[in-house]
Please model this.
Amino acid sequence: MRSFAGRDILSLKDFSRDEFFRVFQVADDLRPFARDRRNSDLLKNKTLLTAFYQPSTRTRLSHEAAMHRLGGQVLGFSDSKMTRAGDFYQESIKDTFHMLEYYADVIAIRHFQQGAPAEAAKWASVPVINCGDGWGEHPTQVLTDLYTILLEKGTLDGLTYLLVGDMRMRTMHSILYALSQFDARAIVVGPPDMSLLPEFKVELDELNVDYVEAGDVRDVINEADIIYMEPVVQADYTASRQERTGTTGLTPPEYVVSRQLLREKAKRSSIILHSLPRMDELPADVDATRHQRYWAEAFNGVVLKMSLLSLILGAAE
Ligand code: CP
Model:
């Protein structure tokens, strides 16, 4: 297995099975600190910089919470309009990250351009973590999702993953790459204008990912062990920010997982993950069902990032 120390986390396409389990093992080791709301001093001499060019609630704050739990320092920006990248100068990734590398030991970036974290990693000598890049990937979210599934099911193999929503979403890309490392079957359900791109399907075939496409969640939910959701009433992920103007459309029933559908058709043991935020594809009354695991996911997000930061900064090897 490659060392994590000093490594950029840009994609799950290049993650091996052993590497997934190494991240989850360290997460288990560090979990008691988060569970008991204690801080450690594992990263007391290290600094995380968060460079977020797109809005975020969970991803930025869970990285920062993880760093605080490990005794490290945090700085950064969450509104790029207040940096030179977002004003008159439109400062490039190259020039920006030439600066930022001097300010911290690891950088977490979210950006509206696919490939921006990889570009940043070229110009920063410190490790760079992709926290979501346009329609590209979202590796830390999917590591959190898989860690949650492992805790809930005791395995990542032998499961059927029902992926519902916008297949252009970065989480959908990362999870399908990740499933190449497990004995997993995926059923993909999304609107035709939000389907997997042909070039991405070629990659999935090259990686030997076992997936089929279906048109309606109501026809296939009975097969699912894991119900993995994203909205289809979506923001434009290639924009730095999108305000809501007027009313949004409703999610068609083909992509809604309701309490009634779960009661009538889902396996009783199936669990629902959603990276959040949600729209009407996942009504709030599902929260009280046996299937809901998205709040556990939120806690696991802190633990997972504690693991990743420890590994990348060489404190867990
Ligand atoms: N899951 C996720 O990426 O949430 P945020 O956009 O709030 O970071």
